[in-house]
Every structure is written in structure tokens, then in C-alpha cells.
User: What shape does this take?
Amino acid sequence: MVTRMIVLRRLGRMTVGALLLVNGATALGCADPFAGGDDVADDSSSGTEDSGSTGSTGDGDGDGDGDGDGDGDGDGDGDGDGDGDVNGALASGMFSITQSWDQESDFDRPVFVDVPAGEGPHPVAILLHGNGGNATGMLNDIDYLPGHIRVAPQGYLNSWNLNYEASKAPDVDFMRELIAFLKTHTNVDDGDIAVLGNSNGSGLVNRLLIELEGDTFRHAVTIVSPLNDLQYRDGEFYYDPTGGNAYDTATTPVLGRRLCNVSGTEDGIIPYSGGAGVAGYVFIAAEESTYIWAQHFGESGPPIDPGAGAVDPNDPNLVEFQYLGGDVVHYKVMGAGHDAGVTPSVRSAIAEFLAN
Assistant: This one.
């Protein structure tokens, strides 16, 4: 049985309403800005909690379902079919996805959203911070994607679970739930969803490329983290069908996606040329990793020679390796370390990749 609870909370200067959908162990909260400046408590006397009463719940529609749409089906989408498949326009603010796993029970995982002006539908960029980073920092940093709905989820313990992190959160399921929820909104272009990650977040993007279904996202941007040898070895991609980190089962990732990778030649945390790196991971060389994905997505030619990349006319330190007409591209940032994604030329290249 699905129950509903409306919660209003303040985020800084913004008053946000979160619609929390509870169904089994998973819950979704949809945040939208509300006018006014007062925090509103969550209690049933205010009419903000649906406890199954048959009279008016305080939502003003009189149908008794508490969702305010007047159709009596209880799903809140106003279409009368009871399936909850349309949530109107996504708005700037915060919502949460609640998960349970070995480390936590009914744990609310916040997701921050910035929506551009206009009715849309807008392309979406999901932004995954690095280990030790956070969602709001990532949202503030990746400010160069005009026209995109920017969505920044928060990693548990400020990280994403690949294998050696303290977090053992079910992050692939988290992303699956998040994308499915985003697609229920009328201003989301569900055919133009990108996932962009930095460092540890980039490692999760590689995992999502391997494990998520084809109808989830279209574009991937991996900043300073190519594939590691848990994810790819001996000519095969690997995952754990139980959702864990065993990486013991070969799999074939879906086709039809696009990939942009950025790596710095002087990265001392995730080496450009591959090998042992941060936290015990062993990485595949950046150019090789990009070519592995290019081959998977249909490239039949040989890898581009390391000295044959195209130098950016406006930045001699930015070298492009392009496959499949630009659908798979690697940017080699000469002299850059683990901060290779911060230069204006790299940011312009990423924005152009997603715009195309």
C-alpha cells in the first residue's frame, strides 16, 4: 500500500516542499519551491499527512486522498488513473530517495536540483561528486551547462560505492531510482539525460555504463577516472549481479551511449598511463579505456596513436582523441593533475559534447 506525507522544510533562503512516497523499503521525495518564508511542521492535524481517512484531508479538493488533485485516485498526478506517472514540472530545490542496506535503515539520501528558466523539456545532467566532496559543491562547480536541469545527488559518507570505499550503499539502485523519478516530470527531456562524474563519481559513471539499462541515460562524462581492472579485464566488462562488489560476472553493456573522458597527464592519484592508484584500485590507461568503450560502441578502426591527437587551436595543452564521429572522445590535458576538469577549455569541450 502506498502512503503519502507532505513535508515542508527550509533550505537556506528557499522554502521547499517534499512529497514523500513510501512503498516498501523505498521512498521518493519531490521538492518544489513554495511561496512564503515559514517552515511548516509535518503533522496530521495540518492536513499534510494522509492516514487513510475518508473525509477531506486538508488538501482542498475534498476527495479524501490527500494529494490535492481532486481526482480521488491518491496518486497526486491529476490524471485519475492511480499510477502516479506524472509529477508536473520539476522545480529547483531538494528531494530525497530513501534506501535501506546493511549500514543504514530507511536512510534519506538528498538530491539537489537547479532548473533553468522556461517550460522545457530540458536536458538533464546528473552530477556526481568525488570522494570527500558533496552534492552542493558539485552543483555550484558544474555551472557551465546552460539549458540543463542540473541534478546533484549526495553520496553516502561523501563517496560512491565502487568497492574499497567506506560506503557500501546501493548506488546503482540509487541512480536507477533517481533517473526513473526524474523522467516522471513534464519538463524533463527523458531522451537527453547525461551522467557526469568527477574522480570517485567518475568511477560510478563507468559502473553505470556497465550496469544500468539502456533506457536510463544517453551521455556519460568521466572526469579523471577511466575504467579500473575490477570493471574491465581480459577483454570483458564485469559486474556483480547481486548488486554487491564482487565483479565476478562478465556482462555486455548496452549500446547506443556517448562518452567523453577527461584525464590529466600528471595525475598522481589516478595515473594517466594506468596502473596502481588511489585506494588500492588498478586503473586502465586513459586512452586505452576510452578506446575500449569506443570499440564496444561500434568503432572498427585501430586506436588513435598517442601522438596523433588533435591539439585544440585555443589551448595547446588540450589534445582530443575522437571516435565514432565524436560520440566517444577523450581529452588529454597536458601537464594537468587530478584537477584536469577545471580549465576553461576543458569545460567548454564538455559543454559542447553535451550540447551535441
In short: Residues 1-84 have pLDDT under 50 and may be disordered. DSSP finds five helices and 19 strands in the chain. The first helix runs from residue 135 to 141.
